[in-house]
Predict the structure.
Amino acid sequence: MTTLTLEGFDNWAATSDGNGKGWTFAVNSGSFNLATGRFGGQCINTGQGVCTLSKTLSSAQTTLYFGVALRIHAASIDGTNQGMLFAAYSSGGVEFFIRLTSGAMSTYNNAFSPTSNTITGFQDPVGNWTYIEAEITFATSATGTLKVWQDGLLIYSSTTQQTASSGSGFTSFAFGCPQSDVSGNTGSSIDDIYLSNSTHFGPIRVATVHPTADNTGQQWTPSSGTTNYNLVNAAVQNGGSTYVSAATANDTDLYSMGTIPSGSSYGVPYCVQPVICVQGSGNTLTTKISSGGTVYQSGSVNCPSAYQMVAPTLYDTNPNGSVAWTTSSVNSLLVGMENGNP
């Protein structure tokens, strides 16, 4: 199982924070902004405009599973392609997309010579959050799979879809906030995104937790005071107004983390490690987690020349035994970083 993207937007200070995590924002009209999210925290919100956020995949994928929480603010959605919720691209361009039009959902396969499918089971959730998921396989003939779920319920399934015109796989993808065509309304919001190449998760929540205490033997230097964790636990990234720094290779900090919110189901086996690099062109670091007393680390991460969020490390399973995550194993993690070259 491989998770390609997991995003909840909670620790973003501005939509530009997505740049360091690989997101590209396209705003043809209107604008994106951050707003109160599905479970508090934050979400991406749009008004009357054509706005998408996209990513390039590290390698072509023949199967994609995606999920996204969606809230429609108004009872009418524009009847043009501006209602796009999700799109998948090959080297030749857009191949597949899901669109909302005046409360109805449709999918367009093989977008160069499109075939439209009306998702008759879709329930328009005006004013409320709903969770939309789909499975799409890449097929240049009518042998592809297309499945759509809403709030965990399978509402469409077909194995005779031509989802592409050419190429060997999907190379990038995009999420959009379907806009409103009602003057004065604020379009829609999206939250709690995932993308996988092998697993349909069901509705998920991307919960954000922050450091709560220093582990013993901290080696990074606080920008003020004598404790480190409270300088790196801002609810949203603060551009380096508080920080810890390291001048020696292999210096390491590990922190106890907050517990995941109670009263929710955590069947999705992931731990995400977001990082904000200390500025300095050419610097590197590795992210670390300690599970069951054993420390595991990511590959080297290049630091940007200014304070910026960078791509997180995704752990599909608990590396201590390669077993599924549990609430207790996530809550007992230590999380931190090691300086590469200062």
